[in-house]
Specification:
Length: about 290
């Protein structure tokens, strides 16, 4: 047992991945399996939520407790609940991201031909409600795992840019069940990975400047709320551009902001470009 605990403490990210991909993928693939074996059409959203909770969040909590002890869990809890931040960070997620997403759609398709009531519904239900629901059910806990656990540890050891690239690969692989479920072929997943790189850079910049996983998760949720749906319905753009292919506009908005952040910070993203001296965490008692 002591040897196993020692190995977990030496390789926390590897242990996390060894749990997530079998467990998280197995849960997320249930709708595809049900359709292929029984012809049953199950909604994917509840299984994505369960995959996030049991595939991502659960192993992070357990591994942090084993590696960093109660102090590590307390720090993680503080980052999750740190809501006090400059209002500009909230404006980034709740104003800039949806505004840029909408501007890209208007530049491509023109102004949506909808009524004022549809506009109100799209903003209040399509964006605000979807952002809140997505944040509470998935996006916050995704960022607890990918940013707060994986990417934060990688950037301490390898530097911020390499951490962005590695996490982008893993983050893209997390979404494989969605690609398979929608029969997207090979090109879209590859494009998604490329676009994920500046997105992960944006998440790193917010995290390194605020030390708040709450804010990171909110900006992530706002990007999804602009285009995607949750268990309560579809997001902002699908309500304004019904029948149009608008799936990538939210990603493009985050990509544009992420590329600007990379350029302005000279790829430091709130940290030195080179790895900081590695600090051995306090090891919890077995």
């Amino acid at each position: 047992m002591n040897n196993l605990l020692r190995w977990v403490r030496q390789h926390p990210i590897l242990v996390f991945l060894a749990w997530f991909f079998p467990v998280g993928w197995a849960i997320a693939f249930i709708p595809q399996i049900a359709m292929a074996t029984a012809g049953t059409d199950l909604p994917i959203e509840p299984f994505i939520i369960l995959s996030t909770w049991f595939g991502l969040l659960l192993p992070v909590v357990v591994i942090v407790r084993l590696v960093d002890g109660a102090a590590g869990l307390q720090r993680l809890r503080q980052q999750i609940t740190r809501v006090r931040a400059n209002p500009g960070w909230y404006a980034l997620g709740l104003v800039l991201v949806p505004a840029l997403t909408l501007a890209l759609a208007i530049a491509t398709f023109g102004l949506p031909n909808v009524t004022p009531a549809t506009w109100l519904n799209a903003i209040v239900v399509g964006f605000l409600l979807q952002t809140v629901v997505g944040f509470a059910t998935t996006n916050l806990w995704e960022e607890v795992a990918w940013m707060g656990f994986v990417q934060a540890r990688l950037q301490t050891r390898y530097g911020v840019l390499l951490a962005v690239l590695i996490t982008a690969v893993l983050f893209a692989l997390q979404h494989v069940p969605l690609f398979v479920g929608q029969s997207m072929g090979f090109v879209i997943p590859v494009a998604f990975f490329v676009l994920t790189i500046p997105f992960r850079a944006l998440m790193a910049w917010i995290y390194n400047r605020t030390d708040s996983l709450f804010v990171v998760g909110l900006v992530h949720a706002a990007g999804d709320g602009a285009i995607a749906g949750t268990i309560t319905g579809v997001g902002l753009l699908p309500r304004l551009y019904d029948g149009y292919d608008i799936g990538l506009f939210g990603i493009f908005a985050n990509v544009i902001i992420g590329l600007i952040v990379i350029a302005v910070t000279r790829a430091r993203l709130g940290l030195p470009a080179r790895p900081a001296p590695r600090v051995t965490p306090q090891v919890a008692a077995a």
